[in-house]
Amino acid sequence: MLALIGPNGAGKSTLMAMCAGTIGATSGSISYGDNISITHGIAYIPEEPTCWEGLTPLEYLTHIGTIYAIQDVKNSVNEIAKKLFITDFLHQDIKTLSKGTRQRVFLAAAILPNPEMLILDEPTDGLDPLQQDAILSFLQELAKTRAVIISTHQLADVTKYFNRVLVMKSGKIMADTTPEELKRHGGGNINIAYRVMMANKGRAA
Question: Tag placement on the chain: N or C end, fewer CB within 10 Å?
Fold first, then answer.
């Protein structure tokens, strides 16, 4: 599971949108694995996702399942709802839900079609610590069978859940490394390593 970290304005959201194909790159190219389809294999949740807010999560997820011709949509929706702790909210209008619950509904919609790659822009924003841990543990399990790319500002989560990290600053990749290696540059403290990297113009040593 890959973490994308960096200050606000570093270009994380833009990079993720380009990888998802929602905006075009002005130069360069993006390559995917041989088994990933750009049209059907990638699920993307932007930082501020939207949907038909007059629907209930059950109606919304059932609609998504129907679009992707998922077999046994009802059971699939119920299963993903349990995993993401939204079962109690399935019959409420989405517009009445808290930000954290809405985030989990959008995540359920992204996972439901069983994509080969998940691109998630701050998916745990608005969740309480217990919910964050549960969701990241769930995504960590998913990452065993697919690519999962997540942007986050929570450095503690990077060391706990991720096995690769990209550090961005001013639209450039400052480092492509592991959390353990990044910590090493801060004397075992990832927060120190990150602050040093943001203060420097170049890459980490």
Answer: C
Between CA 136 and CA 114 the distance in angstroms is 17
Q: What is the pTM of this model?
A: 0.88
In this structure, are residues 194 and 5 in contact, taking their beta carbons and an 8 Å threshold?
yes
Helix axes 99-111, 129-142, angle to 10 degrees: 10
DSSP assignment string, 38-90: TTTSEEEE-SS----TTS-HHHHHHHHHHHTT-TTHHHHHHHHHHHTT-GGGT
In the block, residue with structure tokens 């949740």: 45
Reading the block at residue 99, the tokens are: 């930000």
Report the chain's C-alpha Rg in angstroms: 18
Question: In degrees rounded to 5, what are phi and psi of residue 182?
Answer: -65, -40
Q: Which residue has the tokens 């949907």?
A: 51
Homologous superfamily (CATH) for 2-199 = P-loop containing nucleotide triphosphate hydrolases (3.40.50.300)
Q: Are 188 and 163 in contact (CB under 8 A)?
A: no
Query: Rounded mean pLDDT of the chain?
Result: 90
Question: What would the pLDDT profile of 167-177 be if each residue is shown by its tens digit?
Answer: 999 999 999 99
**Secondary structure (DSSP) of 139-191:** HHHHTTTSEEEEE-S-HHHHHHH-SEEEEEETTEEEEEE-HHHHHHTTTT-HH
**For 87-137, how does the pLDDT look when each residue is reduced to its tens digit (9 = 90+)?**
999 999 999 999 889 999 999 999 999 999 999 999 988 788 888 998 999
